[in-house]
């Protein structure tokens, strides 16, 4: 889904932001031990707007969540090299499906190959149907491999988590996370986006970001900030 030119532009953009933000990188949301993070990427360049506007991504979000969906957050995460640190299995925002169906959908945009040893995502197939939150690990978990430019799209009630990176290089990815319309955004976009960013957005992106949605304002003003495992 990511061609070579766009891939290089995304890599350059995250490298620039990591340099600019330094030790504060990711602070708009949460920082994670043994991982590089950036948050609030919609506010950090048009190259990231293309991610959340991708028609295949929006079709997949609607297939899982129904037509009433919105972006919850767009983040960067890189598993740092030579680390034994892995994420626990989790469901995004710690949510379970309810009587309305699924409430969370995530996409992982591979900026590097996902190999068996560089910290790929692992998941337990079918676990989104369990109606339960996961243990820290599970015997049926499997790693998801792919090439730079590939995108994982998943019902993120499915138990999943990052693995440890045992190579000499960071393993980089973007995470485009969506929620059903009746859930708060993980990162409240109306509060985080600068006026000059909002002025650049198309009507479709305003809809995806829930910028003109009073219900989202009520939900996200006090309810944003939830994570499946970060505290």
What does this structure look like?
- The protein has 231 residues and is of the alpha+beta class.
- The chain has one domain (4-223): Sandwich (Jelly Rolls), CATH 2.60.120.
- Helix content is 27%, strand content 19%.
- It has helices spanning 4-21, 46-52, 55-65, 189-192, 195-200, 203-208, 214-223; strands at 35-38, 69-79, 104-110, 121-123, 142-143, 151-155, 160-162, 171-180.
- It has a 5-stranded antiparallel β-sheet with strand order 1-2-8-3-6, with helices on one face.
- The longest helix is centred in the first third of the chain and has 18 residues, at 4-21.
- It is globular.
- It starts with a helix and ends in an 8-residue tail after the last helix.
- The mean pLDDT is 96.
How is the topology of this model organized?
Layout: H1 4-21, E1 35-38, H2 46-52, H3 55-65, E2 69-79, E3 104-110, E4 121-123, E5 142-143, E6 151-155, E7 160-162, E8 171-180, H4 189-192, H5 195-200, H6 203-208, H7 214-223
Antiparallel strand pairs: 1-2, 2-8, 3-6, 3-8, 4-5, 4-7
- What assembly state would you assign to the polypeptide chains in this entry? single chain
How many DSSP-defined strands? 8
- How many structural domains can be distinguished in the coordinates? 1
Corresponding CATH architecture? Sandwich
Mean pLDDT: 96
**Sequence of secondary-structure elements:** HEHHEEEEEEEHHHH
Please give the largest β-sheet. 5 strands, antiparallel
Strand order of the largest sheet: 1-2-8-3-6
Class of secondary structure makeup: alpha+beta
- What general form does the structure show? globular
Q: Please work out how many helical segments DSSP would assign.
A: 7
CATH class reads: Mainly Beta
- By CATH's scheme, which homologous superfamily applies? q2cbj1_9rhob like domain
Percentage of β-strand residues: 15-25%
Low-pLDDT ranges: none
């Amino acid at each position: 889904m990511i061609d070579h030119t766009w891939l290089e532009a995304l890599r350059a953009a995250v490298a620039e932001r990591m340099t600019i933000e330094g030790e504060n990188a990711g602070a708009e949301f949460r920082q994670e031990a043994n991982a590089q993070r950036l948050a609030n990427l919609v506010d950090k360049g048009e190259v990231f707007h293309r991610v959340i506007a991708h028609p295949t991504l929006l079709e997949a979000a609607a297939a899982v969540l129904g037509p009433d969906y919105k972006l919850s957050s767009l983040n960067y995460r890189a598993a740092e090299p030579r680390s034994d640190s892995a994420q626990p299995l989790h469901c995004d925002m710690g949510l379970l499906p309810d009587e309305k169906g699924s409430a969370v959908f995530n996409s992982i945009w591979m900026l590097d190959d996902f190999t068996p040893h560089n910290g790929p995502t692992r998941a337990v197939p079918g676990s989104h149907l369990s109606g339960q939150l996961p243990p820290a690990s599970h015997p049926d978990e499997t790693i998801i491999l792919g090439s730079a430019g590939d995108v994982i799209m998943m019902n993120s009630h499915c138990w999943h988590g990052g693995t440890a990176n045992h190579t000499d290089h960071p393993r980089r990815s973007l995470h485009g996370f969506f929620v059903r319309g009746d859930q708060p955004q993980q990162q409240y976009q109306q509060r985080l986006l600068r006026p000059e960013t909002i002025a650049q957005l198309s009507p479709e992106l305003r809809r995806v970001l829930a910028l003109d949605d009073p219900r989202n304002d009520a939900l996200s003003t006090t309810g944003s900030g939830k994570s499946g495992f970060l505290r």
